[in-house]
Amino acid sequence: MTKWVYNFGDGSAEGEASMKNLLGGKGANLAEMSNLGLPVPPGFTITTEVCTAFYENNKTYPDDLAEQVATSIKVIEDTVGAKFGDEENPLLVSVRSGARVSMPGMMDTVLNLGLNDVTVEALAKKSGDERFAYDSYRRFIQMYSDVVLGVEHYLFEELLEIHKEENGFVLDTELGAEDWKELSQAFKQKAEEELGHPFPQDVNEQLWGAIDAVFGSWMIERAMVYRRLHNIPHTWGTAVNVQSMVFGNMGDDCATGVAFTRDPSTGENAYYGEYLINAQGEDVVAGIRTPQNLTKESRIAAGSDMPSMEESMPETYAELADVFQKLEAHYRDMQDIEFTVQQGKLWILQTRSGKRTAPAALKIAVEMVHDNIISVDEALLRVEPGALDQLLHPTLDPDAHRDVLTKGLPASPGAASGKVVFTADEAEEIAKEGGDVILVRIETSPEDIHGMHAARGILTSRGGMTSHAAVVARGMGRPCVSGAGALHIDMQEKTITVGGRVIRHHDIITIDGSNGEVMAGEVATIKPELGGHFGELMGWADEKRTLKVRTNAETPMDSSAAREFGAEGIGLCRTEHMFFDADRIIDVRHMIMSDNEKGRRDALSKLLSVQRQDFIELFTIMKGLPVTVRLLDPPLHEFLPQKEEDFLDVANAMGVDLAFLKRRAEELHEFNPMLGHRGCRLGISFPEIYEMQTRAIIEAALEVSQTLGEAVIPEIMVPLVGSRKELEILNALIRKTAGEVIETSGEKLDYMVGTMIELPRAALQAGEIANEAEFFSFGTNDLTQTTYGISRDDSARFLDDYLKADIYEQDPFVSLDQDGVGELVRIGVERGRATRGDLKVGICGEHGGDPASVEFCHRVGLDYVSCSPYRVPIARLAAAQAALKQE
Amino acid sequence: MTKWVYNFGDGSAEGEASMKNLLGGKGANLAEMSNLGLPVPPGFTITTEVCTAFYENNKTYPDDLAEQVATSIKVIEDTVGAKFGDEENPLLVSVRSGARVSMPGMMDTVLNLGLNDVTVEALAKKSGDERFAYDSYRRFIQMYSDVVLGVEHYLFEELLEIHKEENGFVLDTELGAEDWKELSQAFKQKAEEELGHPFPQDVNEQLWGAIDAVFGSWMIERAMVYRRLHNIPHTWGTAVNVQSMVFGNMGDDCATGVAFTRDPSTGENAYYGEYLINAQGEDVVAGIRTPQNLTKESRIAAGSDMPSMEESMPETYAELADVFQKLEAHYRDMQDIEFTVQQGKLWILQTRSGKRTAPAALKIAVEMVHDNIISVDEALLRVEPGALDQLLHPTLDPDAHRDVLTKGLPASPGAASGKVVFTADEAEEIAKEGGDVILVRIETSPEDIHGMHAARGILTSRGGMTSHAAVVARGMGRPCVSGAGALHIDMQEKTITVGGRVIRHHDIITIDGSNGEVMAGEVATIKPELGGHFGELMGWADEKRTLKVRTNAETPMDSSAAREFGAEGIGLCRTEHMFFDADRIIDVRHMIMSDNEKGRRDALSKLLSVQRQDFIELFTIMKGLPVTVRLLDPPLHEFLPQKEEDFLDVANAMGVDLAFLKRRAEELHEFNPMLGHRGCRLGISFPEIYEMQTRAIIEAALEVSQTLGEAVIPEIMVPLVGSRKELEILNALIRKTAGEVIETSGEKLDYMVGTMIELPRAALQAGEIANEAEFFSFGTNDLTQTTYGISRDDSARFLDDYLKADIYEQDPFVSLDQDGVGELVRIGVERGRATRGDLKVGICGEHGGDPASVEFCHRVGLDYVSCSPYRVPIARLAAAQAALKQE
Question: What value of ipTM does the predicted structure carry?
Answer without folding.
Answer: 0.80
